[in-house]
């Protein structure tokens, strides 16, 4: 078999699990750091997951078989982390002896905290202060450029390995774009801001955007200097800390900003649905 064909065969074999939509499972150990408000999310400070991510603290969706109420903060646990193309969850949670793991399995207290900043985190009704960014074409962009139109804003980074975090935000935004443009044309705008400015250059964002949309006039992708990104993430209560130089420990926030430049609503985490956001946009666009 000629070498190019052999190489192609190896690539196809490697892609078979992805093409088939198969799941991948990882054995994970860590300590319970907290719980989400939905009663099904367990926040775990975990050891490195080889082949997926470094040690960090992150929220995990618990399978229905997991008795989340039986878990306690600080407990050492072991579980199976299942990742598919579109979602992820944990199952087979086992409580370990306390001395089975160090107090901080990630090597330190990695629970993310917002960087010190004298500006308050925005709440509904607050005006959005000036923020300068750079769009996917390398052109200067300011949040004030969207004034006069409703704006849906979310945060991502292009290398996010967990399908129900940043990739879900982008899939949801693609769904929203279809619905919004069908009803309002380009009267409602969308903006995805990367909190990984070192990697997510305008060129990288252009390539990433092409996976989800052909219309980057209505749905803009943005990056900026580290200082600019630190400012905008703080304003919306988003933290992002680098683990291994590739994977970022982060939370999520999506916001609707009105034509007057004021925050209308903020959805925290990844549990919101396109229908929820569409309903908020409809109330704004079609009051009464």
Describe this structure in a few short sentences.
By secondary structure, the protein is of the alpha+beta class.
What is the strand arrangement across the widest sheet? 7-6-10-9-8-13-14
- The total domain count is 2
Shape: globular
Q: What is the architecture of the largest domain at the second tier of CATH? A: 3-Layer(aba) Sandwich
Radius of gyration: 20 Å
Compute the number of strand runs.
14
Structural class: alpha+beta
Proportion of helical residues: 10-25%
Number of helices: 5
Query: DSSP strand (E) fraction?
Result: 25-35%
What can be said about the biggest beta sheet?
A: 7 strands, mixed
Average pLDDT for all residues: 88
Query: Element order, helices and strands?
Result: HEEEEEEEEHEHEHEEEEH
Instruction: Give start-end ranges of low-pLDDT stretches.
Output: 1-20, 110-115
Superfamily (CATH H level) name of the largest domain: Glutaredoxin
CATH topology of the largest domain: Glutaredoxin
- End-to-end CA span: 69 Å
Protein model, in words:
The protein is an alpha+beta fold and 288 residues long. It has two domains: 23-100, Copper binding periplasmic protein CusF (OB fold (Dihydrolipoamide Acetyltransferase, E2P), Beta Barrel); 132-285, Glutaredoxin (3-Layer(aba) Sandwich), CATH 3.40.30.10. Helices cover 23% and strands 28% of the residues. The strands form three sheets. The chain has a seven-stranded mixed beta sheet with strand order 7-6-10-9-8-13-14. Strand 9, helix 3 (202-210) and strand 10 (219-223) form a beta-alpha-beta unit. Helix 2 (166-184) runs parallel beside helix 5. It is globular and about 60 Å long. Residues 1-20 and 110-115 have low confidence and may be disordered.
